[in-house]
Amino acid sequence: MDEIFGIPAPLLFGQLLLGLINGAFYALLSLGLAVIFGMLNVINFTHGAQFMMGAFVAWMLLHYLGIGYWWALLLAPLIVGFTGVVIEKTMISRLYKLDHLYGLLLTFGVGLIIEGLFRNQYGSSGMPYRIPPELQGAWDLGFMFMPVYRGWVVIVAIVMCLATWLVIEKTKLGSYLRAATENPALVQAFGINVPRMMTLTYGAGVALAAFAGVLAAPIYSVNPQMGANLIIIVFAVVVIGGMGSILGSVVTGFGLGVIEGFTRVFYPEASATVIFVVMAIVLLLRPAGLFGRA
Amino acid sequence: MAGPGFSGGDFKHEEQVFLGFTRTQLIAFGLMVALVVISPFFLYPVFLMKVLCFALFACAFNLLIGYVGLLSFGHAAYFGMGGYLAGHAAKEWGLPPEIAILIGGATGAILGLVIGAIAIRRQGIYFAMITLAFAQMVYFFCLQAPFTGGEDGIQSIPRGMLFGVFNLNSDMTMYWLTAGVFLIGFLLVHRIVHSPFGMVLKSIRENEPRATSLGYRTDDYKLMAFVLSAALSGVAGGTKSIVFGIATLTDVFWTMSGEVVLMSLVGGLGTIFGPVMGAVVIITMQNYLAEFGAWVTVIQGVIFVLCVLAFRRGIVGEIGNWLKVRL
Q1: For residue B303, which residues of chain A lie inside 8 Å, CB to CB?
Q2: Where are the bilayer-spanning segments (chain A) (predicted)?
């Protein structure tokens, strides 16, 4: 059990774990994108910047106020989600009657502003953020050592995805949301405040991105560019999965993370591009995406 | 796919008097040519050449968004790859500059054919995301491929002798070549838009199902437009690397794709002169703000937001709307 396919087992499992962690972030971010797109018909290009803001707010809370990881996990999504509400109210809500592409262009611009401001203030180099003491160390699983924090990230991400799915599919609020996605005019006629629902949906999607950012802070260094490159990969994930189903985007996110991890073991040169290759193949075979509706 | 703002408004009908130009457009075109000819005697030619390369790039991009309604968010791939291949051809293969620039165009065309054939399977927002993702794939390829020189890029690309006669090491000679390439590219885009082929493209923008029902294979038309746009972007990138003697990762990065979108948006989507105006404005701004570092990014973001919220016609579009003519 030391070697699998001629690859040392610890290396293989190590990369698999890394793949699962990347997959957790792909899943959380593509989930937020799908929720926002379903309701607002806007692809939120600011998502990467909001992920980065989540990590930065966690860092600032610790650095300036001495507030630790656990409170940051709650406060950062609320703070960043609130900025999202402001962005929706003041800007995005003016574009609903226009071509959807304007929403993409607007959120791209907002992302540039946020990233530029953070780069001015904090430079391009990363800030370290320590793993909280409760989650330090590693478990010995017999075949490999598993850092506790990494296991935590994967588990929390899965729980968060399931919770989002439950809220949307099983609660009354979720049923309003799904109805408003199908036919906003009719839902409004029943006396439900659809514009406010859109604002809150955007805020929630943004909060989800910020939550992922806090989770990422101890793993990656906190820096202004951390979201920009990630979001392009998440776009590819969204194209592969299709934005039709919540569980679909979660499964696709984790699956692609694992595929990327394996590629890093067997053919490292392709690890940066493998997701885009998968996207090309999916587009050729199933243009609507794996879980999408044509 | 078209929405409010992408297509025209209330315009006087004007006869096309020459090469598909209306009288107003012909005056504007004459003015532009005059500026291209006069300005190198007053302004720094290297700066002007940068403007012209980006103006051509923006015109090529605008062919897709303005006349077919396809927003490509990955045009840096064709621009940057065209630059790399042209630079490689001039430096390593010792080919003359005119051939190197054509190789840049061919690179853009081939890459555009491959990516376009897959990307046009989806529309609207998905199309934008797919082109962006493929451009990022091209970026990673350039980061690793040996011939691009990784982080260093391809440096000291020789300008060489045009047609074996004109020495391009003189900035003025180089300027006339760049100006020539730009004007040919500009007229080509204009010709494409006003050809029967261009009419079909516009009908796809306005109502694709109806164009299909009239018997047009819309996918073929979209792909052809995509390849033409990518080829011209490659020409622009190739010219740029010959002018500056350098081809780097900056030109294939997603920020470059964003910049060309911004130029077209500022100048006016779907106007003939808009992308040129946008390139002048954005490159001038970058030139003056270069010392402020990341503030350039912030200001570009602010311009994006302002254009989308309040200024969707762009500079040339607003002028045209005010004069009630198409520009």
Answers
A1: 109
A2: 12-35, 68-87, 99-118, 149-168, 200-220, 226-259, 266-285
